[in-house]
Amino acid sequence: METIGVHVDGVSKRYAHRVKGEIYAARDVRLDVRPGEFLTLLGPSGCGKTTTLRMIAGYEKPDAGRIRFGGQDVTDLPANQRNIGFVFQNYALFPHLSVFENVAYGLRVRGQSDDVIANSVGDVLTLVGLAGYEQQFSGQLSGGEQQRVALARAIVIRPRVLLFDEPLSNLDAKLRVQMRQEIRDLQRRLAITTVYVTHDQEEAMAVSDRIAVMHQGSVVQEGTAEDLYHRPTSQFVAQFVGRMNLIAGRVAAIAGRTADIAVLGALISAPLPRRDLAPGDPVQIIVRPEAIEVVRGGDEKTHSDLLPATIVSRTFLGEKIEYSVRCAQEMLQIVRYNEGPGALIPEGATVLLRFAADAVTVLTD
Ligand SMILES: Nc1ncnc2c1ncn2[C@@H]1O[C@H](COP(=O)(O)OP(=O)(O)OP(=O)(O)O)[C@@H](O)[C@H]1O
Ligand SMILES: [Mg+2]
Description:
The chain has 365 residues and is of the alpha+beta class. The protein folds into 2 domains: 234 residues, Rossmann fold; 121 residues, CATH 2.40.50.140. It is built from 8 helices and 20 strands. The chain is globular, with a radius of gyration of 25 Å. It starts with 5 loop residues before the first strand and ends with a strand. The structure holds adenosine-5'-triphosphate and magnesium ion. Magnesium ion (MG) binds next to helix 1.
C-alpha cells in the first residue's frame, strides 16, 4: 500500500466554555507530516494536542481548515472511512473479548474471512511480542501487555495513518522507555505515517523524526529534537524542551552574524537571532546546563570570556554531577559528566565558567 503524508491546513476548533464563553482548543494549526514520518505533538496539558489528533482521526470536526491524507481531502470523511489506527491512553480494549478477538475486531468489521483474520492476527501478535496470548483476556494482562494489544489492534488493519494519544502514560518509567523503543522500531519497519501525542519531552525526543511544539492551541515551533533543543525561537520552547539557564543581557557589539553579548559582567559571543538588533538592545540568552564548562583554579589570569563563579551546591548523580553556581548575582545550573572522583569540585570552590559559543541562544521576546 502506498505511504501517504498527512496535511493539516489551518485547522481550528472552538469549544464553549462556561466562564470564557468560547475557547480555541486548536487555532490555525498547520502540519505537514511526510509519508512514513513519525511526528510528535508535544506541549503542556490543555494546549490542544488531543483535539488536533482527534480531528486528524475524524473523531472531531474542525470549525475551519482542511485535513488531507495524501491528495485526498478527508475533512468530511467519518473516522471509520479514513483507514487510521488509533492507540488510546487507556488502551480501550474490549474486556469481554479475548486478545485474539480484540485484535481481530477491525478485520471482522471489514468482513474479512476467518483464514485471513487468523493469519493477520497471528502475524501482528508475533510482531508485538504476544504470540501465545491469543486466548487471554485484558484483565489477565499487565499494563505493558495491554498496550501491545492496543498497538496490535491499531496496526492489524494496515492503516494509512497511525495515531497515538499519550500511549505510555499509564506505564511505569522503565516500561515506558522499553515500549517507546518498541513503538519506534515497529513504526520504522512498517513505515506508517504516524502522529504521536505526548507532554513528555524526553519521550518526544526519543521517538520522533520531527516534533511540533504546541502552546495554547497553536504550533509554536517545529523541527527535529536537535533543532528545538539547540535553536529554540522562544522562551516557551526553550523551557519546555530540556532544562536551561535564562540570563538577561545586552547587545555590546555586532560583527556580521555574530554578536557580543554583555552578560554576567563579561562578553560572550553568540549567533545573532535577528538582523535588526543594535548595540544596547536588551536580550535574553539561553545556555543549557551541560554547555557550561567549569575551569578549576580560579586565580588564573582572567580572560574576557571566562566568568568567575562559586560552587554553591552540588548533587552527585553517579554518571553526572549537577552544580548550582553563583555567577555575578545569578544562580546557574550546570551539569558535568563524572570524570572520576578526582574531578569532583567541592562546594564553596571558586571556579571559572566558559560558555561554549555555539551553545548560546539569543532570544529577543
Ligand atoms: N469537548 C470539549 N468541550 C469543551 N472544552 C474542551 C473539550 N475538549 C477539550 N476542551 C478544551 O480544549 C483545550 C484543549 O484540550 P485538549 O484535550 O486538546 O488538550 P491536551 O493538549 O490534549 O491536554 P492533555 O495533555 O491534558 O491531554 C482545553 O482547554 C480543554 O479544556
Ligand atoms: Mg490530551
